[in-house]
Design a protein that fits this description.
By secondary structure, this protein is an alpha/beta fold. It is built from 17 helices and eight strands. β6, α11 and β7 form a beta-alpha-beta unit. The structure holds adenine and zinc ion. Belongs to the metallo-dependent hydrolases superfamily. Adenosine and AMP deaminases family. Adenine deaminase type 2 subfamily.
């Protein structure tokens, strides 16, 4: 099964580039930039990776991101992630970046975008990994701050493929950003939003009705409302699910209780993603292996999850056809029958 997973062509649609900052790189960049960290070494930092909620993780994640200063830092971060994609046979990525985490520290927008984009372009050439880039607004900050970030991004809109909404969910409902998302629609930017990770099913409805999102990030709390589950099955509005993240942040107490395969069998367009892999115990391959170990996922289910990711991606139709054929061909070669 491990080699079947390793060679299965995968797409990642929910990945925070700041969440790929491995402790070793964090310390190397801290030294390079003269940034002080509150942990003496890598080992003690790793012991801090015990989270009891989304907020307990975010506090550490924002602290870690403070070592990212130069364009080269953002390049190195993104390049390291792409090397993990090669190892896991991830062929297409749609990644988030959080400009406000950096501009609030005085790092220019162009430094952040330039470094990430340069790595993605070089990675496409070197490894053939296609990509899309999604700018996320931090929902714990105000609507006014989101509008200010959008104004900063406006000269660069042709370099962005969409917008997202992340950070502390509880108490920051999607509706808070309805006007920002409406303006982004006028600018031609498609939207996604984190909803139903820790927050209630109502936040998923809000992100559909008030933000008009194209995908829901997480969305696992949809199970609380059968009518919402039916809606998601009927519309095939995709959910980018992150199994290891959900267990590490206590959304589910153990992998055996995760609902992703149940949602898959109910006809939802669920996909598998790694979220913040440096903090949650693994990249795409590890998430797929966890589904097998914790939930007994079959090879057929793993293939269908990858086909869902093709459907949910923002690739052109020709690339969707090519990748669908590649995954179906892979399944057939391994004697997996897809229904
Ligand atoms: N930012 C980075 N990871 C996140 C997550 N899992 N939920 C919300 N915001 C995030
Ligand atoms: Zn996320």
């Amino acid at each position: 099964m491990d080699t079947f997973i390793a060679d299965l062509p995968k797409l990642e649609l929910h990945l925070h580039i700041e969440g790929t900052l491995e402790p070793e790189l964090m310390f190397a960049l801290a030294r390079r930039n003269g940034v002080a960290l509150p942990w003496p070494d890598v080992a003690s930092l790793r012991t801090a990776y015990e989270f009891d909620s989304l907020q307990s993780f975010l506090d550490l994640y924002y602290q870690g991101a403070s070592v990212l200063v130069t364009e080269q830092d953002f390049f190195d971060l993104t390049w390291a992630y792409l090397e993990r994609c090669v190892a896991d046979h991830v062929v297409h990525v749609e990644i988030f970046f959080d400009p406000q985490t950096h501009t609030a520290r005085g790092i220019p927008f162009e430094t952040v975008l330039g470094g990430i984009e340069r790595a993605l372009k070089d990675g496409e050439e070197a490894f053939g990994i296609s990509w899309r880039l999604i700018m996320s607004f931090l929902r714990h900050l105000s609507e006014e701050e989101a509008f200010a970030t959008l104004a900063e991004a406006e000269p660069h809109l042709a370099r962005l493929h969409g917008i997202g909404l992340d950070s502390s969910e509880l108490g920051n409902p999607p509706g808070k950003f309805a006007r920002v998302f409406a303006r982004c629609r006028e600018l031609g930017l498609p939207a996604v939003a984190h909803a139903g990770e820790e927050g209630p099913a109502d936040y998923i409805w809000q992100s559909i009705q008030e933000l008009q999102i194209r995908r829901i990030d997480h969305g696992v709390r949809c199970s609380d409302e059968p009518e919402l589950v039916r809606y998601l099955a009927d519309t095939r509005l995709p959910l980018t699910v992150c199994p290891l993240s959900n267990v590490r942040l206590r959304v589910f107490d153990e992998m055996a209780h995760h609902n992703v395969l149940h949602l898959l069998e109910q006809g939802l367009c669920v996909t598998i993603n790694s979220d913040d892999p440096a903090y949650f115990g693994g990249y795409m391959g590890a998430n797929f292996r966890a589904l097998v170990q914790g939930l007994g996922a079959s090879r057929e289910q793993l293939c269908r999850l990858c086909l869902n990711a093709v459907e949910a991606s923002w690739l052109d139709l020709a690339d969707k056809v090519r990748l669908t054929r590649e995954i179906r061909g892979y399944a057939a070669t391994h004697g997996v029958i897809l229904h």
